[in-house]
Amino acid sequence: MKSTQLAEKVSMRDVFGETLLQLSVEDEKVYALDGDLANSTKVDTVASNNPKKFLQMGIAEQNMMSVAAGLASTGLQPWATSFAAFLSKRSIDQIQVQIAQPNLDVKIIGAYSGLLTGLTGKTHQALEDLAIFRTLVNMTVLAPADGVEVKKMMEAVHEYKGPVYIRLARDPYPTIFDNDYKFEIGKAVLLKEGTDITIISTGTQTSRSLEAAEQLEADGISVSVLHMPTIKPLDKAAIVKAAEATGVIVTAEEHSIYGGLGSAVAEVLVEEKPVPMLRVGVKDRNSESGPNEEMLEKYEISPRHIVKAVKEALKKKGL
Amino acid sequence: MNLLLNEEKLTDLTKRASEARRLIIETVYHAGAGHIGGPMSAVDVLVNLYFNEMNIDPADPHAAERDRFVLSKGHSAIGLYCVLALRGYLPIEELKTFDSLNSRLQAHPDMNTLPGLDMSTGSLGMGISAAVGMALGAKLQNKDYRTYCMIGDGESQEGQVWEAADVASKYKLDNLVAILDYNKLQQFGWNGENEAREIPVHEPEKRWEAFGWNVISIDGHNPEEISSAFAEARKVTGKPTIIIANTIKGKGVTFMENAYLWHSRIPTDDELTGAVKELEKGFDK
């Protein structure tokens, strides 16, 4: 495991754009649908290099998702892309009625997810998307941690037939995975083994959790980091195993503390293996626009806050 | 207007529409739930689609080259089910399961349950967008099938309808035909007595023209006008067509016509008898 401080940083959206271009070239059924954000989401790679496979739906997310359903019903595989905030809230009825319930092969890409959306503030942040999407029947919900995982995930999602939501981040993140990493839908990835506590993280919070784990090791605390790239279907066995191994859990996500990874893990623990746990996420409050590091600090989801939560959780365990 | 239907076909379509209307009323009576007014206004167009216009085969409801139909005004589902039953997609007897547990005939169309339904609808404004996707899918894959979609006038208050109108026009979907069931009534009244209860859409022709569509206005209960409009739409290139079907909510049963209470009222025994008696006259034509 490389130190996350030293790792090369790669932007998920760049990898997304390149990979979708590749898929659109290789598979005649793959189409990119844009809600006029292509140069932000980086789906503009398809518009520029494979324009026949690029469908501009304009600033009308509801129509875009229903059109995607119609396209999928004719045997195509549309990849509909917009900001996570708009897809998860503006067009969720369309996604439920015409994509999730009929189990159509539509890939939904929520770019600019979470809190760090590039000085755009609360209208453009998505802190509820995991909560919303994981309640939809038939829906697979994914949150990659780095550029390598984005590519591997997209290749797996392309092979999988059915509706999938992928949340992506705007800014570059440290590369965690090697190129021979094998992603599997529904499987957690144990990134670091320890004995005192397990941090279960998803998406962008996985590299911050690894950073927190390095600090904790320096303080003599042995930490496991379990990366959960699939929020639904959740790898329950991995969660139960972690609870049995370390007896206490902290979850970390760039998402509301309500309904996302923390809630999903808590549901499993309560029913299968009750152990103490704490959730690191954005609490029940309005957010705002601001620089990344200051946002992480103010909204209590920085590596420092993960460290703090781990130490508090260990007290619950009696250590 | 050119007459496209011979006497035999005209009689057949008229008779089937009367049969469908009787089935609608009997089914809603039996289920104790459902809509009557909207399905009755839509049924002449639905019968024409399934018995005259569309290239479909009830024995092969998933055929890749079939024409598609989306009932965007999903609450008229019972009207579509009755026509599908008459066309052979399901046994007439099965209509009695409408709205009951485990039925393939859900209150609003569910494409998962009943083969022959090309899209799930019910939440308004969505069906027309899905139809745009189907028509666009045909263009992208060089397929010749056509896509039909019925929307409601009340439904046209949904902004998504106009998002769809915009994109259909942009992609020049001349393989797409929308039908507006323009019955000028919606759930809560719209009897025009004051501003709050004005009719849903004034001059829909102007709106659709402004969005770049080919517009054809017809009497939506006249089989010859319906057939001619479909034929005319086939000749248009470079733009989608909308048929403004001027209809009467509750059409076919005098006491139900233009009465907004029949949007979703359940008939009493006497009302059922009266309605069936009036409709049976249509069978003899």
TrEMBL record, chain A:
Keywords: Thiamine pyrophosphate. It comes from the Bacteria. Pfam families: Transket_pyr, Transketolase_C. Transmembrane segments: none annotated. Residues 10-175 form the Transketolase-like pyrimidine-binding domain. CDD domains: TPP_PYR_DXS_TK_like (cd07033). Coiled coil: none annotated. Its cofactor is thiamine diphosphate. Belongs to the transketolase family. This is Transketolase. It comes from Sporosarcina newyorkensis.
UniProtKB/TrEMBL annotation, chain B:
Pfam families: Transketolase_N (PF00456). Keywords: Thiamine pyrophosphate. Its cofactor is thiamine diphosphate. Residues 17-271 form the Transketolase N-terminal domain. Belongs to the transketolase family. This is Transketolase. It comes from Sporosarcina newyorkensis.
